[in-house]
Design brief:
Radius of gyration: 20 Å
Distance between the termini: 4 Å
Number of helices: 11
Oligomer: single chain
Largest sheet: 7 strands, mixed
Number of strands: 20
Structural class: alpha/beta
Amino acid sequence: MKTRVARLHGIRDIRIEYLDYRAPGPGEVLLAMAAGGICGSDLHYYQDGGFGPVRVREPIVAGHEASGFVEALGAGVSGIDLGAVVAVNPSQPCGHCQYCRADQPIHCLDMRFMGSAMRLPHENGMFRERLVVPAIQCHPVGDDVSPGEAACAEPLAVCLHAIAQAGDLSGRNVLVTGAGPIGLLTVAAARQAGAARIVVTDLADAALARAPAMGATETINVASNPDGLLPFQDNKGSFDVVFECSAAAPALRSAFATIKPRGTLVQVGVTGDMTIPVNALVGKEIVWRGSQRFHAEFAEAVGLIATRRIDVRPIISHSFPLDAATAAFEQAGDRSRACKVQITFEHTDKA
């Protein structure tokens, strides 16, 4: 049996092709995919051939934030109903390396992460009409949310993990730099965690326009208002916690300038090397923490979306059918209009 996929062969070279798929084995589920979101890493693969040391070295089916309908169950699978919509956890730690044994599966030495070019052969992802996946990676979302919402569980899990790095946010003043999908979901997660004031910065009005619906109390366009954060530098800083989601050097400088002494800066955005304001780091005794991926937070994200305690709908800006995957990626690259762009699936597979 064969299924249609969107396969990246090189920079701006996506082809709709057929790949083999099989019936689910013991402990596995066959999914008819429903929606898949284009992530920043997917976009880097498409536009630049990779990011940092991670390069696309062979054709790859991208996509690691997706949902699907349960079409068939392998032997021994229970607790998942046929026809149910599930969010798919793309993370597959080995479970037995030194980091998995130390309860740090995010740092697994043999991690398999769908849609990632980090390994060779690459791990194919979920921009496909059908997928066989271990049942343990499928999280039912219930009947009250759309497949598009369910597909946002993965990026929300990333943000929930970032929130966990900051400690208790109840009543805290928070700055979020960067209002892309991750920044906006971080806003929603910070609001859910009890933050009192959430200021969001970005260079694009279209991105900032979505922030209030996600829980922001104030927005600042630092392109049109470059001095907008200056008042927050008074008295050594105003923010208890900063989530740096842009990976832009000016945003990082602003974060160090506006955070309070002994505040926590959580680095969510990734980039290459950049200059660090070491004097501010030391002088303010700032706690600067990195945050990547997620583990237990995936199930938490599904629960928050399923109950709409976090409503992800404001970030979903566009959807395209699989045949228009190239147009979807081009749209995702236009921050003046797009936020979370998703690919949808119509299931025209053939035996």
